């Protein structure tokens, strides 16, 4: 394992310098080496990697930390200190991949996040598979509608009798959750296609102003989805993809996830954004079906997806005169 010692020395030079690109490159080299050697590493060696990655992660920019969180968010063997540091990052886009998926977070870590971080962090916790009652109770006590909506869509989450009583007793929280997402207490009245189309049209002006200010990007779409603002997110997807809102709505209303998969990949979106989009439709998280969708999504290329979107848009444009003359 001489390569580890050599990397540690290189890290000291990288951190001590002022070359941001070098630090990011070094971090990727360290994490790639860790994944290549993980099954053969002893605990002490994992600890060395952990210290190195934490040190580098403190010295890189936001986008590099998001990339790091996405790459190590699902690993089941160290580095725990790094995982905890990312989970507690004040930027929810950095923290979310770890909060949603990492098996290395302890219950006390999640309770700390719930108590000390913001709504988007708590929504990410609510998306975790197999949440125990201690965590769901802590989320329910906060009474935040978007978080409750996310939690109640999570079919693997375990809600205690006390938690269910609290939800039932707090009628306002239950109603708000029902309006912004899905409620396990009452059957949700789903928006009709016409209602969703009207909501997307109402959101168009706000989304255009967001784009004009340079703030319409994937993190903005993800924040809208996690905040229960689905119509605005769909309007944003339509604007970014240069597709008619009617086509985006048709893809959103399709029973299969494939149309949304092509759109998300064509825009260069990552899995967390597509997953959040599917969750707004009531897709269960942490299931075999969702893992299958992710496998298919990972195999899609941007180029192929963009060709599919161009074909769909052209066909829709050609069909429009026929429809008007019918």
Q: Strand fraction band?
A: under 5%
**Number of strand segments:** 0
SSE series? HHHHHHHHHHHHHHHHHHHH
* Radius of gyration over C-alpha positions, nearest whole angstrom: 22 Å
Mean pLDDT: 80
Count of spatially separate domains: 3
Q: Helix tally?
A: 20
Helix content percent band: over 70%
> What gross morphology would you assign?
globular
Distance between the termini: 73 Å
Main sheet properties: none
Unreliable runs: 177-189, 321-326
Structural class: mainly alpha
Question: Can you walk through the features of this model?
Answer:
The protein is mostly helical and 326 residues long. It has three domains: 1-105; 117-189, no CATH class; 193-325, no CATH class. It has 20 helices and no strands. It has helices at 2-16, 20-37, 43-57, 62-72, 80-87, 92-101, 107-116, 119-126, 133-142, 145-153, 161-169, 171-180, 193-212, 218-226, 230-241, 245-253, 258-266, 271-279, 288-299, 302-325. Helix 8 packs parallel to helix 10 (145-153) and helix 13 (193-212) packs across helix 16. The protein is globular and about 65 Å long. Residues 177-189 and 321-326 have low confidence and may be disordered.
């Amino acid at each position: 394992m001489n390569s580890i010692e050599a990397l540690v020395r290189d890290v000291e030079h990288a951190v001590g310098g002022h070359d941001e690109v070098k630090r990011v490159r070094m971090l990727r080299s360290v994490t790639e080496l860790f994944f290549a050697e993980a099954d053969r590493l002893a605990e002490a060696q994992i600890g060395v990697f952990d210290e190195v990655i934490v040190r580098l992660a403190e010295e890189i920019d936001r986008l590099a930390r998001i990339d790091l969180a996405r790459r190590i968010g699902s690993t089941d063997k160290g580095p725990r200190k790094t995982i905890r540091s990312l989970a507690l990052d004040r930027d929810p886009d950095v923290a979310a991949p770890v909060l949603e998926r990492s098996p290395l977070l302890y219950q006390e870590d999640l309770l700390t996040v719930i108590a000390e971080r913001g709504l988007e962090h708590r929504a990410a916790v609510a998306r975790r598979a197999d949440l125990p009652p201690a965590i769901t109770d802590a989320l329910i006590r906060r009474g935040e509608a978007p978080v409750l909506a996310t939690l109640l869509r999570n079919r693997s989450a375990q809600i205690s009798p006390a938690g269910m009583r609290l939800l039932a007793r707090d009628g306002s929280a239950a109603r708000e959750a029902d309006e912004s997402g899905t409620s396990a207490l009452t059957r949700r009245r789903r928006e009709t296609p016409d209602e969703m189309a009207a909501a997307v049209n109402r959101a168009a002006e706000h989304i255009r102003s967001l784009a004009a200010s340079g703030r319409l990007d994937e993190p903005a779409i993800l924040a809208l989805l996690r905040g229960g603002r689905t119509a605005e997110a769909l309007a944003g997807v339509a604007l970014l993809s240069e597709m008619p809102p009617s086509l985006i709505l048709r893809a959103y209303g399709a029973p299969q996830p494939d149309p949304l998969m092509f759109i998300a990949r064509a825009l260069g979106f990552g899995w967390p954004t597509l997953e959040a989009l599917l969750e707004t439709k009531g897709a269960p998280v942490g299931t075999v079906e969702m893992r299958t969708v992710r496998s298919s999504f990972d195999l899609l290329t941007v180029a192929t997806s963009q060709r599919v979107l161009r074909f769909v848009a052209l066909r829709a444009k050609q069909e429009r005169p026929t429809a008007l003359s019918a």
